[in-house]
Amino acid sequence: METVCDIKRILQVLPHRYPFVLVDRIVELVPGERITGIKNVTYNEAFFQGHFPDDPIMPGVLIVEAMGQTGGVLACLTHEEELGGQPIYFTGMDRVRFRRPVRPGDQLVLEVRFLKRRKNLIKMAGSATVDGNLCAEAELMAVWGA
Fold first, then answer.
1. Which residues, 6 or more positions from 130, have their beta carbon under 8 angstroms from its beta carbon?
2. How far apart are CA 103 and CA 73, in angstroms?
């Protein structure tokens, strides 16, 4: 998969920093419509020390956060001029479902698409897959200028 945005560009757009940046690169971007991001899950991630030492599984809330960050990149790159550098805040999630565990060595493919927008509120649908298998899905809400 070809890289559309590398980590340097992601760090220009998102306020997150290590160890909380949960998207490594963007491989597809259609501004105003959809985005696909990649998170390479490695054993040395801090959360695996306690979740769970003998059976490491990526926490579901971090999978949803990775979807939210990918959606944040989509929103920022779609509305860059309108945002004027304001951060986007993750404000809610609905219809969250976890389908299979994510483990070290997995490559998480994060797909997010816009559902609707009202002023500074955005609703998006996200999914996370590994090797084409659905791991998690959710509807996400975000706002800027709050």
1. 100, 102, 106, 107, 108, 109
2. 24
- The answer to whether the pTM exceeds 0.90 is yes
Active site residues: 51
Q: What kind of architecture, by CATH, is found in domain 7-144?
A: Roll (3.10)
Single-letter amino acid, residue 119: K
- What is the DSSP annotation of 18-39? TTS----EEEEEETTTEEEEEE
Nearest partner of 58 among 44, 78, 73, judged by Cα: 44
End-to-end CA distance of the chain: 36
How do residues 94-143 score in pLDDT, each as one tens digit?
999 999 999 999 999 999 999 999 988 999 999 999 999 999 999 999 99
Contacts of 126 (CB under 8 A, 6+ apart): 64, 67, 68, 70, 71, 110, 111, 112, 113, 137, 138, 139, 140
Query: What is the Cα–Cα distance from 131 to 110, expressed in whole angstroms?
Result: 12
